Amino acid sequence: MAMLIRRMLTRLRNDFQLSIITLMGLIGVLGISPYAIYRLLEGNYLVGLADCVIVFSTLVAVIYAWRSGDTEKPGIYLATVLTVGGTLVATNLGVNGVFWLYPLILFNFFMVTPGKAVLATALVLLALVSHALLVPGSVFESSYQMTSFLVTSSVAGLLAFIFAYRTRRQRDQLQILAIQDPLTGARNRRAMNEELRIAVALNRRHGSMFAILVMDLDHFKRINDTFGHQAGDQVLMDFVKLIRKSSRKEDRLFRFGGEEFLMLLPNTDKAGLLAAAKHLHSQVAQYLLGPGGPVTMSIGGAILRTGEDWESWLLRADQRLYRAKAAGRNCTVADDASQALPPVLSNLF
Q: What's the whole-model pTM score?
């Protein structure tokens, strides 16, 4: 039990949106359940039933988010249910039910994107005001009271929108910084390790084929020593732009370290690996220019083998890279996924 609780807490710390859904769900269940029971006992079955639906829907959404890892759909589902339920409660209880719309407004801005939350808030206010105008005295005692509610709820919605928008922007920026190399814009090693783990998992579950190319710019140290680190940095940035332009949309590029990069190739066999390596070699040789002239690269390639872990897969590709460099650089060394030995040396020029 203690281990299960620790795992749950770790998951909550690592998944912001899941923690929000769980917290809002807990507050919703504990806050609404007593009112649902009270209204059913009082004979107000419509509102009591609406409260029960909200509580049940909240539990279903939270459980789904925990089991599937998907937090977007449960958020939209909860926002929809609460918006409809909150409007129904407010129109039936009158001014006493209106107070529940303030936490509803805040709740929606936590559960869905700011744009969707603004839409939900506008629909609630429109439905409530329309009902109040069609049935005078059913919700508000006077036009002044209705106007006061509209002003205060709009201000609350505006403040919630500003907070939610800024928070989401900052969180997105932090997530990008956590996985992106600040100089080149390629993904960093932390992101690379995670992507390789995912590739191994997909291979084991579905037999998906993956390949990697570990690329190293030849004699890069000479550029830094001769022309300075600023010139070297420019070569690295130009290299990343060129590789991205020359690869498929599904291929993912990572900065492995220094002038060393890794390209993850989904749905790729050995023929595809060698074709990709040849194409990238050609593009770099033709278009990558440093202050001292053309820049070339060496490549080590490896196909993911069945049952192999990602560290062994990466090590094999790295070993092939060093063989390519020992063979004179500006070439590719790749191994065959169907054979443990020997590796195949392919000079592509």
A: 0.62
